[in-house]
Write a structure and sequence with these properties.
Elements (H helix, E strand, L loop, with lengths): L4 E3 L4 E8 L7 E6 L8 E12 L9 E9 L14 E10 L10 E7 L11 E3 L3 E9 L6 E13 L2 H13 L2
Antiparallel strand pairs: 1-10, 2-10, 3-9, 4-8, 4-10, 5-6, 5-9, 6-7
Amino acid sequence: MPKGMKATSSPIQISAIVSETGPNTFISQEIDLTLNVLDREVFVVTQLNLDVDAPDSVAILTTQTNASLSTTARTNVGSIADSNVLGAASRSIICNANMTPDGGIPFDREDPLFTPLSEDYLGIVSTNNMFLNLEGLNNGNPKSVRVRVYGYRAIVTDAAVFAALVQSELLSA
């Protein structure tokens, strides 16, 4: 348990899905947490799993399906290098000029999946929502991503700490 917080729920699982409206189109879906901000309630993320569709296999092209879960709205998928991204996943198929579409080499990446043993949590969401982000690259068909977020609700015991958490989250956008 992070210092200065008191858990107010048992572990919770939140699931969501988002699909591109057209191939290779950035899309973001808001996940409403319905936190009680007047009581300084936050959501502590302990684990997440992003399940992205496989990209299309296209000769001579690298195709990708990229997704992320962020604490604030984004205009692109981003990566874990961005402070408002809790986790990201990518699936790629690389086909060079000598390969047929069925001979491409697939690659998967997802970071992070769970809280390391030395840590209490992946992130703290102090506003009322998270965002599931998705965008494909060089695909002929729209793609989807599914997410399952594990965590719990908590109350921040100090108003100044809560204000700092909210300010930090909003400034990370």
